[in-house]
What we know:
Strands 1-2-3-6-7 form a 5-stranded antiparallel sheet. The protein has a two-stranded antiparallel ribbon with strand order 4-5. The chain has helices at 25-40, 126-139, 150-165; strands at residues 45-47, 57-62, 70-83, 86-91, 99-104, 107-113, 119-125. Helices cover 27% and strands 29% of the residues. It is built from 3 helices and 7 strands; from the N terminus they run αβββββββαα.
Amino acid sequence: MVRPILKYGARKLKEISLPVEAFDAELERLGEDLLETMAAERGVGLAAPQIGVSRRLIVCHVTAAGEKGQSFSLVNPEIVEQEGKQKAEEGCLSIPGFTAVVERSTRVKVRALSLQGDAIQIEAEDLLARVLCHEIDHLDGILYLDRIPRLRRDLIKRKIRKLVRAGEWG
């Protein structure tokens, strides 16, 4: 089921998510809902807090040039290694219509569990590394706006406040 995505300003986006402890049908449904919602919005990643669920679950779908790509879910993901730096334009389904250049690690190693509770380890580079960092940040209540220079952040926040006042945000 496609669920509504919370927008910047929603309190749930700033909360630290709770670890998943039960690997059951409810978790499977949540994973499916996240994948469907991400696909409907044409995103490359989505975290449970973005649909109002304070659990440590993310989904990703990154396609390399000329390849079909694959979607996957990660439960209780944590970055265990990172190296390098890359700067690139980044957006977020919770902050639609805005982007900014964000510095992220070039390579990351992530440990997580599958929706069934099986251990997973992913080594990612470039775009997938960026997506994993971005989505794991959501689990800790961090938005990409928190990682950009203050001047750019304040400009985006001012524009969002103007949209809120006009009734065009929320």
